[in-house]
Amino acid sequence: MTPQQSVVLRLGDSGPAVTAVCERLVLSGDLPPGREHTDASGDAVYDERVEQAVKSFQQRRGLIVDGIVGRSTYAVLDGARWTLGDRVLRYLPEHFVEGDDVVALQARLAELGFTPGKVDGLHGPSTDSALRAFQAAVGLVPDGTVGPETMRAFAGLRRSVSGGSANALREREQIRRSGFSLSGRTIVLDPGHGGRDPGAHGRHGLVESRLALDLARRIEGRLSAHGVNVVFTRTEATDPGTDEERAAFANSCDADLVLSLHTDHSVTGSAHGAATYFYGHPDSPGRADWSVIGESFADLLLREVVARTGLTDCRSHARTWPLLRRTRMPAVRLDFGYLSHGGDAAALADTQTLDHVAEAVVVALQRVYLGDADTSRTGVLRLDDLRRHLEMMRSQQLGDGTAG
Ligand SMILES: [Zn+2]
């Protein structure tokens, strides 16, 4: 059971991998300790009890609750057994160490005013440099290794700030430093699915992958006009790759923000509406493990979309999906309606609705980059209003300098 394994485990399976999964579930408190059902060779069987335990683990960790141990669930499950100090941590460029102890390390570094990047449980280069900076600051050899000495240094230091405020401050500070403007930013648009995976099919001949790409192009046109550098994770012609690969691509672009576009689908056909998702760990103490800008953009975007399109508000949600978790910048996923719903599909078959969604994206982005200054008039702001508002803010800033 190595982190590289790509085996998917589900109800009815048995074998050493299932035994290992059961051990992790006992450690995480989701499976009562005791005798699992075993097969002829003594390995655990993936029965209903195990499936239920997997679901409860997924629920708590904000993963998709399907009762199946795929790559994402495995990675989180495997990392969950470590607490900070259990093992020596260091940065390995070829394979980032992953686990709850890395989450604790990153949260600790952030609390102490160092900047480990997103608190994502992956020991990457920014965690490494924050760790070395911390070691140097407390007079240790900056070797980037969390051993007994570094652990003692952590223990001897009081918390300088509490909980998630460090994360929030850092994200806000990044935006403040880069200025109140969209121009010059890089936004990665990720039209869901693609290649051999069309996504959901719906009424009016709608296909999710095509619809997402169509919407992405409409957003691109508007953003480019504002001087934004727009990058796509895929077009019709390119191989889309997994969500992990899309996240790595966004990281390689050094983007300011990632927006992933999907539609939803339900078996019954009655579900309808739009929802947004941002990076956040539901168990995170004090919301240390939480993208504040992601949440803010997800909220604003959904409000703008709902106000402009009339789609039902299915709220915005914190999730730890790979695309949200593995991106180093705020990332948001928008599900713009259910293709399986008559009303939603009819709305989306009308290209005007897509234009409204595209405009909602631009307005929400501008509002995020205005910071906290503007929380008024959600859903009625037009681009022209915003331009005027921005000019007003700029002249006020200039005025502040001389007014004393
Ligand atoms: Zn989708």
Describe this structure in words.
With 404 residues, this protein is of the alpha/beta class. It is built from 14 helices and 8 strands. It has a 6-stranded mixed β-sheet with strand order 4-3-5-8-6-7, with helices on both faces. Strands 1-2 form a two-stranded antiparallel sheet. Helix 8 (208-225) crosses helix 13 and helix 10 packs antiparallel against helix 13 (351-369). Residues 1-5, 158-166, 372-383 and 399-404 have low confidence and may be disordered. Bound molecules: zinc ion (ZN). Zinc ion binds at residues 192-193, 199, 208, 262.
Task: Please provide a brief summary of the model.
The protein is of the alpha/beta class and 404 residues long.
Mean pLDDT: 81
Report how far apart the termini are.
65 Å
Please bin the fraction of helical residues: 40-55%
Low-confidence stretches: 1-5, 158-166, 372-383, 399-404
Shape: globular
In N-to-C order, the SSE pattern is: HHHEHHEHHEHEHEEHEHEHHH
The tally of helices reads 14
Strand arrangement across the biggest beta sheet: 4-3-5-8-6-7
Backbone CA Rg: 23 Å
Structure ligands: zinc ion
Number of strands: 8
Outline the biggest β-sheet.
6 strands, mixed
Structural class: alpha/beta
Roughly what fraction of the amino acids lie in strands? 5-15%
